[in-house]
Amino acid sequence: MTAELFAVIALTTLVGAFAQGTTGLGFALILAPVVGFIEPLWLPVIVLVLMIPLNVYVLHRERHALDWSGVGWITVGRVFGAVVGLWVLIAVPGDGLNLLIGGSTVLAVLATLLISPFRPGSPALISAGVLTGVTETATGIGGPPLALVYQHHPAATLRSTMAACFLVGEILSLALLAGAGRVSLHQLLIAAALMPALLIGAWLSQTTHHRVEGPMLRGIVLAFALVSGVVLIVQG
Questions:
Q1: Domain extent listing, the chain
Q2: How many angstroms separate the CA atoms of 98 and 161, rounded?
Q3: Distance of CA 59 to the CA centre of its chain
Q4: DSSP 40
């Protein structure tokens, strides 16, 4: 890989970390398509590895707003979803997987535009955990299901709860991928080389995260989910 292409990935990592540090989501959506275009064999490992320190930072910064109950229910579903996601990654052609996940995400966004504000119960949280486990383990993009169920919560709760859920899921997904022989030393070294860009983006987000709230946050969430779905459909 040329230095120029690596610089593009590093800059994208910085922008993605800034976006996720500000809104609670967006890192994988921003980084995964760029990495997939330049070096698809790095996915989803480097995205999962880089998101671990990013989500530790966000969780620590806004730990006061964490929804512990939601994290518990989502994790229950996440464990099952990660196992299914590993099977899907091995068994289902990438194009078909992208079309399925992308189409489902777009339909979910359209549905949420038609229903009244809601507070998700345990069935919705478990379902979101399952879907997130499947999509993040298989593609590296797992935010849309969690973002949709938390779209009517305060911004700090959304950011901290999603960070906690992502953190648990990323460790689980990486363990399963490593067990299946899908994690290499080269991928880990690339992730380490991108870490400075990630840390700069996360640090910059501390100046903007408190300005995103209410209708603005919901608009960002819906746009994020819709764009991620369209990106996966186009890739498929």
A1: 3-235
A2: 26
A3: 14
A4: G
